[in-house]
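Record format v2
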Amino acid sequence: MTIYDYIIVGSGTGGGVLAYNLSKAGAKTLLLEAGKYHTKETYPRNEAYASSQLYWGGGLEFSYDARMAFMRARVVGGSSVINQALMDRFDNIALDDWRAETGVNFFSLEAMTPYYEDAENHLVLHTFVAEERNRNAELFSQGCDLLGYKWQYLRRAQIDCAHEKGNDCIGCLGGCHRDSKQSTMVVYVREGQKFGLEVQAEVEVEHFATGETVRIFAQTPGGKKEFQAKNLILAGGAFGTTKMLFQSGYKAKLPALGKYFSSHPQFMFFGVYDEEINAHKGMFQTVTSKDPSFRKRGFKFENVYAGPISTAMLFNTSGREHQQIMKQYRFMTCAEVALRDENAGEIDVDKKGKLVIKKTFTDLDMRRREDGTGVLTDILMASGARRVVESPYYFGLHLMGGSRMGLDSQNAVVGPDFRVFGEKNLYVCDSSLIPNAPGINPGLTVMALSHRLSKELTR
Amino acid sequence: MKSAYFSVATLRGLNRIGDVFLPANDDLPSFSELGCIEMVDEMIAYLPNEDVDLLNIVLSIFSMMPVGFLSWLVHTMENSLDKTGTLPSLLRQLNMGLRGIIFGCYYSGRSGAGYTGKTPLEIIGYQINRVED
């Protein structure tokens, strides 16, 4: 059996970056991913099949009480394939909170800057301009202006979205068919393969055993399979990494395992207008709220939209009422309240090996939701909406924590060297090590942390 | 129509509950008129096996239930959102699972072999341009 220098489980913003850097440095590296290996030619061209083929659970997973839904990618490239590639550095508020809660010194803007630069230098970044806004974005920013709230253009990792040729970006939520989106698949995994990186897709790691080498046991379409490496890096995200640690027997050793889960819960609001908006056309998601008061109040607004299936799912209606709403699809705008939630959630695994997610909303979370709801409704009405419809469902797309970083094994799962406490050749590098919700898209920061670990491992 | 995952009774049950969620209204076809069950295999191919097994049981039962019961069930599922307890949790899961399959097929832009009208996406005017590389 081949013994690799590194096996990395998970190919998103954590694992993809590490796989590239370690391979480039000459390490014999194997990247394992539960999802399929797609190319721009093979990503599903249809919303229905993109949801079922690129996400865990066939589209959605739920909290144990089915009140909240979670979306996480299951494809080579991970969440970077299906997200909007928004690339924001954290601010002092987020990193100071992380440092205060964990005692980890490199959680500071000064210490993180070189790694943010490493990640940014590897990507093509584009900041939107006025003429790239679609009507959805125009009305959102207009509503903010009328009420005196600050907003800004977003920065996205993309190289050529063919906006001027009439390309509609909403399609790339099911994988970019132009390779414009700078997913880790495009800019790290495929580049890593040129340096000898091995990639095995459709391999779901179930558990592992550490020792002089790490034995990794996985399920594949062809049956069970074992792999072996000198070092194992878990990068399966908050749910995936935490689940693998549970299933490998770490529950008793690490009391913090599964705790401190947060997810930036998103509450969707639709404005209904008399004019045709066509929010699904053109550049998708170009602006966001940037009012300093919102940051202090613990929420922000994302100006988004969704395909017809996702939109249909967001309204808890059926029959004629549902169909009347859907007939207004082209007359609606959409924005969401995204909370900076407290890390009161828990990730666990039941006896059958199934994830059990408890997402608790604290009083502070509920106040922030109410506050944000009021402001966003005002913005949509100010922009000319006839009425505002709130979806009763809410979602978590930024799944964070469960295997958080810290200084001791009572309150954390991994140390500042990214090693799992008590292990010498087992690392975690993904959103599961995030100690609390930053209130900012975590993608770029996970990439920066991966660059940091890459440098330490290749030094 | 044959399915690799669902029995004939299951498909019949899916059509019945699908028509409660999405009946024919004005220019919009019903779930069954559109021939949605012909798309269902592609939708559920990636579901965990245990979910497919559960759907087979539930939808088979639906195939035998009167439409009045199915309407009541849909209404009850929709009203379970803010309720606590095991039963409302199960109803919410069932509601989301059914809606995922039913809306997924209905708004996929495709139709069954026997349907000749406009698809729901054409009727609501949804069309996106994909400029290939």
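Helices of chain B lie at 8-21, 40-44, 49-62, 67-78, 86-106, 120-124.
DSSP finds six helices and no strands in chain B.
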